[in-house]
Write a structure and sequence with these properties.
With 343 residues, this protein is an alpha/beta fold. It contains 9 helices and 18 strands. Helix 2 (62-75) packs across helix 3 (91-101) and helix 3 (91-101) runs parallel beside helix 8.
């Protein structure tokens, strides 16, 4: 019998209606089978671990990412897979962070949640949870887990965690991975796209749980008051600046903007360039407005999501030597970006 650890952090999925008051309140996942009897049909040993105080995902912080990663590290040898129930708003951040913190993963970590509470008749939570459990328990003919990475399952689709973003606040199809195809699709049966699944080259799990928040994000916009923003861009208080640029990595070419970026890099800061567009990638130097970035050493983030760029930067600051961070950020470490370079 395969063993799964279900980690409940909070979020919409964990709400049911109080029969006496009619109010929504937190679900006690220790009584999982009583609330979702369909799970008894699986021949699985499912154990549950919950945050002491369930959190709205807006309240989830890097400390909570470390807590989840620590629990998985401690339980890694005792379980065949992990399912994490998480609020949708920051699920992609947590999934991305865990993909970097738990390199060498050879077991599934499947995130899911819901747009409607599990106690609502029309909830998407039951299907999401049941199928996420089925995915986490799935193995091939040799008994090896089919999924060996951090993934997000939502509304019949399985996405790579560090490629996913929340794209809708009101549709059941709340997540997408515009720059990477589905890992699996759940219909009458689960259709696997095995050639798309990540496989590590590391010999064993290598947990690295330290993170640094010395990161700043600028989303460029026309008329941006550079002098105002520059006040916050002080090295070494800020060690990595993430620029969310226009199109294929373009920015305005004002002397003021270029001087601030060049001065920050000269002081020791690192600048990572990602696109504001939902799909596509940065191609520095393809247009004249991004040639300057190439000349001064701005790192191209290729097709990184904002969530992956942020969490990868936080990981790099805590675990990668300064001289190697640029190479690390532009290299494919756990399938988070499309590049010819390998980490």
């Amino acid at each position: 019998m395969r063993k799964l650890l279900l980690i409940y952090t909070g979020g919409t999925i964990g709400m049911i209606t109080n029969a006496q008051t009619g109010a929504l309140e937190s679900f006690d996942f220790a009584h999982l089978y009583a609330h979702i009897p369909e799970l008894k049909r699986f021949e699985l040993d499912i154990q549950v671990k919950s945050f002491e105080q369930p959190l709205d995902s807006s309240e989830v912080s890097p400390q909570h990412w470390q807590q989840i990663a620590s629990w998985i590290t401690d339980a890694y040898d005792q379980f065949d897979g992990f399912v994490i129930l998480h609020g949708t708003d920051t699920m992609a951040y947590t999934a991305s962070a865990l993909s970097f913190m738990l390199q060498g993963l050879r077991k599934p970590i499947v995130f899911t949640g819901s747009q409607l509470p599990i106690g609502i008749i029309r909830t998407d939570g039951k299907e999401n949870l049941i199928t996420a459990i089925e995915i986490a328990a799935a193995c091939d003919a040799q008994g090896e887990p089919i999924v060996q990475e951090v993934a997000v399952y939502f509304e019949y689709a399985l996405f790579r965690g560090n490629r996913s973003s929340k794209v809708s606040a009101h549709q059941f199809e709340a997540f997408a991975a515009p720059n990477y195809p589905l890992l699996a699709k759940a219909g009458v049966q689960i259709e696997w796209y095995k050639e798309r699944l990540f496989r590590t080259n590391l010999p064993a799990l290598q947990p690295q749980l330290q993170l640094s928040n010395e990161v700043l994000i600028w989303r460029l916009f026309p008329g941006m008051p550079i002098a105002l923003y520059a006040k916050a861009l002080q090295f070494p208080q800020v060690k990595i600046l993430i620029l969310e640029t226009f199109g294929a990595g373009n920015a305005f070419s004002t002397i003021e903007f270029q001087s601030v970026i060049q001065g920050y890099i000269a002081a020791g800061g690192l600048v990572l360039n990602i696109t504001q567009c939902q799909s596509g990638a940065v191609r520095q130097g393809a247009y004249q407005t991004s040639t300057f970035f190439e000349q001064i050493g701005v790192v191209s983030g290729a097709d990184l999501t904002a969530e992956a760029a942020l969490t990868k930067s936080m990981f790099a600051l805590a675990n990668i030597e300064a001289a190697h961070r640029g190479h690390f950020l532009k290299s494919a470490i756990v399938g988070e970006l499309t590049t010819l370079e390998k980490g």
